[in-house]
What does this fold into?
Amino acid sequence: NFILTQPHSVSESPGKTVTISCTRSSGSIAHNFVQWYQQRPGGAPTTVIFEDDQRPSGVPDRFSGSIDSSSNSASLTISGLKPEDEADYYCQSYGDNVVFGGGTKVTVL
Amino acid sequence: QVQLQQWGAGLLKPSETLSLTCGVSGGSLTGYYWNWIRQAPGKGLEWIGEINQSGSTNYNASLMGRVTVSVDTSKKQFSLKLNSVTAADTAVYYCARRLIGHWRFDSWGQGNLVTVSS
It folds into this structure.
């Protein structure tokens, strides 16, 4: 099975934009949909993006997802960063197994 | 709005069997896969396995042989058993739902911390 690699952490000031990458180790990133989950301390994950770029109802449009075949990676972009966006973010896809990335801690400075 | 409520023993000794159950309310078992996912302290998410209403299962190959997921449709519950636990199995265990044919986990239980310690 493949591995999804995320940066360990990113940080930015309120109002700015952060982008989290999720790079697939083998096989095409476009072959299987990518989901993104937000997890606040002590809580269960919640979906912020599904099927590469779809936003569940209730998720602000400050959250967007995309895939880039040239880098074989997916990205989660959070624009207009707010303090409540501070959390861990996980990408997830599937092949023979369900695969999660290692997670990225987003810090709002 | 579906709700997943999970329960089970929180403290185990090495070599014992982990047993957790997840109850489903506000929705049907039909049309979904019912999953178990865990998170070791300070670590990322690891998918364990899943089952549908008919009893069809899929498991993480790394845990194959130790894990069993079962379903009780009459009680609208599904369960996880993990044999021969070690300290490496210490984690928060979540139950979660995904629609068959889709790969988003759209509802999650509250999580149970299971600690393995002698």
